[in-house]
């Protein structure tokens, strides 16, 4: 479900999977008591819990499947809002800056869920077998059949949505069964090294054969695709965010023209490369101040800013408060969560 910024979409129907989700809810509820985020012994699997509705918070979400087991969440990227709950999951195929918000949660019924990080090597390996059914063929045939009856604006919107690196998919019984078996391993830690890789591979398979997710994942691993080239550019930006950015040089690095690079980057990430770099810098500076106790000026220089005053202005514009006040608020919130 996608809505324009500034509107609050109605949550989708969240009750259809309630029975199947009950054991998963129990596992996550027990594991996350007293914490909001929890890394698990299963590589790439994190659990989350929110006991109340939250205001939008900025985050960088890695290529991953985000599944809500109880409650309702939404993610805002650019002008698009993605609402997901127990019947719809969120999938992103690139590392994306976004705003996350909990729409339904309470102490008695907290918002519970998981973040399953995608492994592009596994995706590429599965695609290389050539034996995966491609759900796009049936969808394409149906689209061609209905194309003449569909307004041009809707066709363009559908093509743009398919290009974006974030989207919503339906939680199917097959996907839910695989996730259920993966979570059950948290109560059987000795089996994790042997069984977790098999189930993780199955989850990737389910996503690669899902009508709403296959196209995104296939594009990001296709070496000759524009999405793959943008992914390489994002990898470079993530490692070199403090360095001066030349759009021409970065476009050349991924073998694209500057105009094509800028166009496809904005289409996939919903912002320009310079805006993406700025968000990387601001998020890293926030982490340095919060976790490593750096002052604002030192953090600013560490992430590539030459002017502390410019850093403070952009930080306040992005996070809604100057660095010192924002960090104090975050620490107060963290203390209240653990007390």
UniProtKB/TrEMBL annotation:
Residues 134-150 have a biased composition (Basic and acidic residues). SMART domains: HTH_ARAC. Keywords: Transcription, Transcription regulation. Residues 134-156 are annotated as: Disordered. Residues 231-329 form the HTH araC/xylS-type domain. One of its GO terms (molecular function) is DNA-binding transcription factor activity. SUPFAM superfamilies: Homeodomain-like. It comes from the Bacteria. Gene3D superfamilies: Homeodomain-like (1.10.10.60). This is AraC family transcriptional regulator. The lineage of its organism: Bacteria, Pseudomonadati, Verrucomicrobiota, Opitutia, Opitutales.
